Amino acid sequence: MLQTVTIRRFIFAILLCLLVLLSSSIVKNNKKLIQTTHLHIHLKPKFLESASPAVPRCQPIKNVVFIKTHKTGSSTIANIMFRFGLRHNLNFALPNTKLYTIDFNYMSKPGEVMTLDFFYPLPDNQEYNILAHHSIYNRTFYHQVMPKNTTYISILREPFAQMVSTYEYYRFENKFVSMSPERFNASNPISSFMENPYIYTQSGTNFTYMRNKQAQDLGFMQEHLEPSKFKEYIDILDKDFDLIMILEYFDESLLILKHQLCWELKDILYIPVNQNIRKRKWPSTDEDRANHKKFSPIDYTLYNHFLSKFTNLLSIQKAEFFQELKYFRTILKEVRFNCMFGRTFTVQATKWHGVFNFTNQDCELSNMRFRQAVGLLYSRSNIPNYKNAHKLIEREGIYNI
């Protein structure tokens, strides 16, 4: 009996030793796994983490020209373009001018004949992927300098609202008061301006910041004002542009953009940038609006044409598009809330996308003002004339790249 107990105790001791050894091995392996995982996270690309797709899908389009129109929400779209390009290490078309001067955010201006000298040159055997600066659309030049498979997009806004935003953003009040101190009423500036806008406009000019500016950004010139050429140029824009977004349908526009470019949901998440925080609600009347239609008829024709085209596109979307739109807006609220506190948050996989993180760096980049983004691009491109861009970026509050 004693011998049997002794044998049992011996077997139990052996099993206990084996259990301890096995536990020790598991702990060591787990430590290695944790260390490896930590190292993997540490070595992820310094820019944004790509969202992994839930299912096999099409290839994202990486060659994009975005014609940045004035006071139309275009800075927010440009920010989306910048983030996508940085994430995928793409080449940006950058203006060959001094950083942070008055022209640093313009590829071209009205009346200029674009040449390759306007673009900062790339190394041999490379091509531009993304252009998202302010520029006047020049189809002949852009079709020569950009890859043949480039997608062209832009955005328009209801013209009266765009004009009011322009007046407020560029602070035209002082200019107009000095031009006509007896006529211009600064307490009711929009109605005062629309009573006789021609006295504040250079004679014979149909394109100014306050007049037909969106049409000018899209390449309209004086020669296109003849009825036959006007319709012809609208047809050209219809053919050249894959999508003209509408500010009044901003989220819908972005979702359609996502589908057309085969991008991820994370790519189009945004925080509004370059909004006019000084914006006031100026009084205006139906007569003001009617006068503005007479003053800027090209913008109205252009806007109404592409508004109709866009709403027709919306009307043929299936129910799932609007389900995704509702979901997109829910995630946008999460982005804005968490970015207020600089928090990383995880978006779980759905039928529209794979799981992804929206990090504090994502928040920083989404909040970049245009001047910050441009400085970051110059610094990233190692342009010799802009070797101090890193310091400027640091001063602007954006991390080093």
TrEMBL record:
Report whether Protein biosynthesis shows up as a keyword of the record. no
Q: Which GO terms describe its cellular component?
A: Golgi membrane
Q: In which broad location class does this protein mainly occur, judging by the first location in its UniProt entry?
A: Golgi
SUPFAM superfamilies given in the database record? P-loop containing nucleoside triphosphate hydrolases (SSF52540)
Q: Which family does it belong to?
A: Belongs to the galactose-3-O-sulfotransferase family.
**Origin superkingdom:** Eukaryota
Q: Which keywords label this protein?
A: Glycoprotein, Golgi apparatus, Membrane, Signal-anchor, Transferase, Transmembrane, Transmembrane helix
The species this protein belongs to is Biomphalaria pfeifferi (Bloodfluke planorb)
Molecular function GO terms recorded: galactosylceramide sulfotransferase activity
One Gene Ontology biological process: glycolipid biosynthetic process
Q: Where does the protein end up?
A: Golgi apparatus membrane
PANTHER family, alphabetized: GALACTOSE-3-O-SULFOTRANSFERASE, PUTATIVE-RELATED
Q: What's its membrane topology?
A: Single-pass type II membrane protein
State the protein's name.
Answer: Galactosylceramide sulfotransferase
